[in-house]
Amino acid sequence: MDNEIVSSWHQGELAVQQRAGTDERMAEIGPKFIREFMPQQHRDFFQSLSMIFVGYTDHCSNAYASVLFGAPGFIQSPTETELVINTQSTIGDFIIEDLREGDHIGLVGIEFDTKRRNRINGVITDINQKNIKVKVLQSYGNCPKYIQPKEFAPNRSYSEFTTVSLDQLSQKYREIISSADTFFIASSFDDGQKFRNRGVDVSHRGGEVGFVSINAAGQLLVDDYVGNGFFNTLGNLLENPIASLLFCDWQTGHVLKIAVSSEILWHDEQQDSVVLAAGKVKRSLCFTPIKIEQFNNGLAYIQQF
Hints:
Layout: H1 11-20, H2 23-33, H3 40-48, E1 51-57, E2 63-69, E3 75-76, E4 82-86, E5 104-111, E6 116-127, E7 131-142, E8 152-154, E9 162-166, H4 171-178, E10 182-189, E11 199-206, E12 212-214, E13 220-223, H5 232-239, E14 242-249, E15 254-266, E16 283-296, E17 301-303
Antiparallel strand pairs: 1-2, 1-5, 3-4, 4-7, 5-6, 6-7, 8-17, 9-16, 10-11, 10-14, 12-13, 13-16, 14-15, 15-16
Helix pairs in contact: 1-5
């Protein structure tokens, strides 16, 4: 099998690409677009960030989405295949004991003012109470579509954490979701192979306020807008529907995290019991909440108006 060609995509991604009709284009684009190293501009980009969004799994294979903060430089790139992240500033839920060497991790960095966005899927090669060292397995940029521009100021109440957990959406949580123009989703898929295209992914979802709706059953509904055609997230969800959603209330500094079960709804498979989000799209995502947590004052930065 030494001459076996490994696809850039795992079986879930391939299945969704085939259903969406992008598989032939992705077979050509994947090897060119997805690198096993970071170009210098990506290294400079990550080192300039003051926050980075993280997807990971715990020892029970539950997916988590979180965000790490720091002054620019809290992320370092000693080589083109490594990132070292200082983890001492988090939203209070990032449990370092959940991670071990060899665990996969997904990272996405965004400059909300310039709409630049780059992603890393990697594996942890070293970890301690201060830093995580990540080896790059996949490195690629994303287009600026659907990123809502924002400017930030320090949150003076940051780190005064309090946590609230519920098993259903309260009116307050519904308002946070309904007024959101951005959220993040962590998903995972491990088929037991050690190829570079398996592991954990975290991705950004954005749109105009109201692009996430809530139906009568308390499910979150999101149209899947046209993107790069990779279907990293949908490919993972097809194989493993359990995911984690992260909503940041940039006005108050609070964070809402929701563990969910996911379903991909294609237009030819719509069910009468599910009301899709508005908009003529080929597919939508339906998220059924399992566990809801709010982290008060969990954001180091709040939106500056």
